[in-house]
Amino acid sequence: MGRFDRRRGHLLLSCALALGLLAGPALTASATPGPATQFTPGAPGAGDPYFPDMGNGGYDVSHYDIRLAFDPRTKAISATTTVIARATQNLSRFDLDFKGPLTISKLTVNGRAAAFTRSGAQELVITPPHGLRRGTTFVVSVTYAGVPRRIDDPALGVSGWVATKDGAVALNQPIGAATYYPVNDTTGDKATYTQTITVPTGLTVLANGEPGPTTKHNGRTTFRWQMNQPMASELAMLAIGKYNVTRGVTADGRPNLTAIGQSIDTKAGQGKVFNRTTARIVQWESSLYGRYPFGSTGGVLTDARVGYALETQGRPVYDQRTSEVDGDLLAHELGHQWFGDSLTPVHWSDIWLNEGFATYSEWLYQEKFNGVPVQKSFAETYAGEKDWSGKVADPGRDQIFDDLVYNRGAMTLQALRMKIGDRAFFQVLKQWPATYRHGNVSTQTFIRFVERLTHRDLGAFFRTWLYQPGKPKI
To answer: Alpha-carbon torsion 46, 48, 52, 55, what sign?
Structure first.
């Protein structure tokens, strides 16, 4: 009940802001502080050891409202992002993550102009007119413009706002969100989202969640999208360009919206194949992992030239040169909707909880639809793996997307299945995402959960598979 009430409050507040019904002083309790009140700055980082500059402290975001216009000729955006948050300490100032070269023209806190500076690689340091008292809700509005610059990290690849031939895509994992909107860019601060995107008529916009009304005016079209379940910033997405969109429903009546970029949609009927395959896999994975965690599903096939697919919440993005549909890949990214999206690690060191389960989803798919037993996939991976160095549950910043995380993560799950038996293992697969639905988790949380469910001490097992380098004996 608490989650439903909070979400409803966020949506009502967002709508009120959009209609101009709320003024700053009516919303906030950050009145001029009394002499005994002590206000201190929020931390400029969220405490992730791999990405110390990411995220911020002192507040908790409940909702982002992104209103953005895109010009495909210049690749520039003009935008206003509104952030609704609650102070978790008495704040004298606070940071958002926001990268150059976007230029800020206006910034307010609770409707009043606030001082701000840019610091380091991505710190937007904001000083409101008065201190913000702990427990009070406040609203930050930032208006800005420019040409977003993508991130191309030598170890982690491309992320953030990526220009394409006919538009752009935003793929934020792990450090890209701040390239196009001000954000508390940490996995530990989930929020709901509204995205209102205006583009020249003829282009399509896809984003997380469910579509709202689309309007046209003076040769431009505005698309509206709403993600009503909490979402980590690294899972937000946008796709702008020329797309062929297919609408369907899943077996439980959930909207299923898929799209294929027109430049690669050259084989007749692929739109329906993509849509139906997505629905079939969601239905099958729901039978294993429990109720699908979001209001809609779908996916986007696009020629983005980033070299990967990404489990963006509710609507994965698959970077491809053709419209061919790979069931293995869909099983992986849709499996992430439970493991990684609904359940999100607090720290990036625990990313095996995303990728191990998603890779195991591929193995289960191979068994269900192609007749390849999971044990065979495990045995072949175990025999073929050449590098057994590193720790699965702490791979290092530059190794979070390595085989160590994917393959050994999946092997850990199969080894656990052999250890505790099928009945208990499949209880884990269903009860783990149900227990922590829409929350944040860690490796230690998972270990304690499995030990409670099985009534067994599994410390030695998990130390061997997750924390000790070297090839485990089986």
So the answer is: negative
The radius of gyration computed from the CA coordinates of the chain, to the nearest angstrom, equals: 22
CA dihedral 271→275→277→282, nearest 10 degrees, is 160
Say if residues 200 and 175 touch (Cβ distance below 8 Å). no
Phi/psi at 239 (nearest 5 deg)? -135, 120
- The neighbour count for residue 326, using CB atoms within 10 Å, is 12
Buried/exposed code over 67-95 (b: 16+ C-beta within 10 A; e: otherwise): bbbbebeeeebbbbbbbbbebebbbbbbb
Q: Which residues of the chain have pLDDT under 50?
A: 1-31, 33
Q: Are the C-beta atoms of residues 256 and 249 closer than 8 Å to each other?
A: yes
Helix ranges (H only) for 19-61 are: 24-27
* E strand or H helix that includes residue 15: helix 2-18
Q: What are phi and psi of 228, to 5 degrees?
A: -90, -10
How remote is the C-alpha of 239 from its chain's centroid? 15
State the pTM of this model.
Answer: 0.92
Under 8 Å between Cβ of 14 and 61? no
pLDDT of res. 35: 55
User: How far is Cα 135 from Cα 127, in angstroms, rounded to an integer?
Assistant: 18
Query: What is the residue type of 319?
Result: D
Q: Which residues contact 292 (CB under 8 A, 6 or more apart)?
A: 250, 252, 254, 282, 285, 286, 337
Adjacent-strand bridge partners of 225: 195, 211
Q: Measure Cα distances from 103 to 16, 77, 147, 159, 272 in Å.
A: 27, 11, 9, 20, 42
Residues 6 or more apart whose CB falls under 8 angstroms from that of 238 comprise: 168, 169, 170, 195, 197, 205, 206, 207
Instruction: Yes or no: say if 465 and 368 are a contact pair by the CB < 8 Å rule.
Output: no
